[in-house]
Specification:
254 residues, alpha+beta, SH3 type barrels, 3 domains, five-stranded antiparallel sheet, 44% helix, 14% strand
């Protein structure tokens, strides 16, 4: 799955008619997680957003993709004509998007409370899935927010932060979108500017360097660089171990 998601990201960056066509064609066969990734990547460009809407209108893609915040927040910035009316028409009859997220939170909350979880086992889960961007006790990277003491947030807020990362996005950690003069699309957290070079961190925490004079369009969205489908990326049991580990991170009172 990570390989497929990376392929979708690379195809979307090329932003060519044939790559958009290839991405749209995967929507009829891909599972929900990959569909969301493909739709979010398509929506990074005006042409891709139009291709996605057209696919939904023709029944070639699920209208539920237009309820994913990772998708709609991208489309909203593309200046598409009559976007609100088109969204309303294409999603008519579907339950509100918040209902889906809240249902998942309720399920995961109940599952966590009913499970006997070893918090120490969550350290390995954190290292595998989170340490590329976050740091705890000096381990990991400082690309995203540092998580020392995060246990003070409590279970409810940690469920929000992991299951709905776009709900509460700090201004300093919003996603930067770049479109180069060659049409390539890049997206990530702006780490710094080194002279005439912009340095981004992508969704895997890897640095991407772009010369400022090669950038045609630059914008900042309300999205978090953290994947919106994070909960689907790890086994449910590992998710509970991770939550237990994060809840155990509290300041030393000595």
């Amino acid at each position: 799955m990570p390989t497929r998601e990376e392929a979708a990201t690379l195809l979307a960056r090329l932003n060519q008619p044939q790559t958009r066509e290839q991405l749209v064609s995967t929507l009829t066969l891909a599972d929900g997680r990959l569909q969301t990734t493909v739709a979010a990547r398509l929506s990074q460009s005006r042409e891709g957003a139009e291709a996605l809407l057209d696919a939904v209108a023709k029944g070639k893609a699920s209208a539920r993709l237009l309820q994913e915040r990772a998708v709609t927040a991208q489309i909203e910035t593309r200046g598409l004509p009559n976007w609100p009316d088109r969204l309303k028409k294409l999603t008519a009859g579907l339950p509100p998007a918040d209902a889906k997220i809240n249902a998942m939170m309720a399920t995961r909350r109940a599952g966590y409370l009913a499970s006997a979880v070893d918090a120490s086992a969550g350290a390995a889960v954190f290292e595998k899935h989170c340490a590329a961007c976050h740091q705890v006790a000096g381990k990991g990277a400082k690309i995203g927010p540092q998580l020392d003491g995060i246990g003070l947030r409590g279970l409810e807020r940690l469920l929000e932060d992991t299951l709905d990362p776009n709900r509460n996005v700090d201004q300093a950690f919003r996603t930067t979108n770049l479109k180069t003069k060659r049409g390539t699309l890049l997206q990530g957290l702006l780490l710094r500017q080194e002279g005439a070079v912009l340095v981004l961190a992508d969704a895997q925490g890897k640095e991407v360097r772009v010369k400022e004079n090669e950038v045609e369009e630059r914008s900042v969205s309300n999205l978090s660089p953290m994947p919106a489908n994070f909960a689907e990326a790890i086994p449910e049991a590992d998710f509970y171990r991770l939550i237990a580990y994060l809840l155990s991170q509290r300041p030393d009172k000595r």
